[in-house]
Amino acid sequence: MTLQEFVTIYTGQRVNFDPRTGYKQCMDLYRLYVREVLVGFDQSAPVRNAAAVWHNYDPALWERIAYADGLYPQPGDIVIWSKWYSRSLTGHIAICVTAGESWLTCFSQNDPGGTPARLREYGYARVLGWLRPRIPVPVGGL
Questions:
Q1: Residue 10 CB contacts under 8 Å (≥ 6 apart), including other chains
Q2: Fewest beta carbons less than 10 Å away: which of 35, 42, 91, 112?
Q3: What is this structure's pTM?
């Protein structure tokens, strides 16, 4: 499946990857993306919150890129926000679709809380960086 197909299929859906927490987690959309688009990639280990993925990933599968001026995520990269992104101190995680100098559009769920999967524009405030798959991401016609 391509990134474009993934976005098309799941826009407006409430994704529940694991039955423990319900559909209200941004992590559910990230984990489904890994399973359906990055076929063959292992899931990151269980974490307490989305921000923890920044330190809990397989470096053989992902390149970790810290946010800095002049660096932008590519379509298919996993963008991770610090725990200070949310009042609950959980951070946020989403899939980059496009990015520019002062903004990025991501496929995201539960931001704001309870919203289904959708495209959302963000600034770079509190972005730790992104994980880039070490395989080409099938993007499609994005």
A1: 29, 32, 107, 117
A2: 112
A3: 0.93
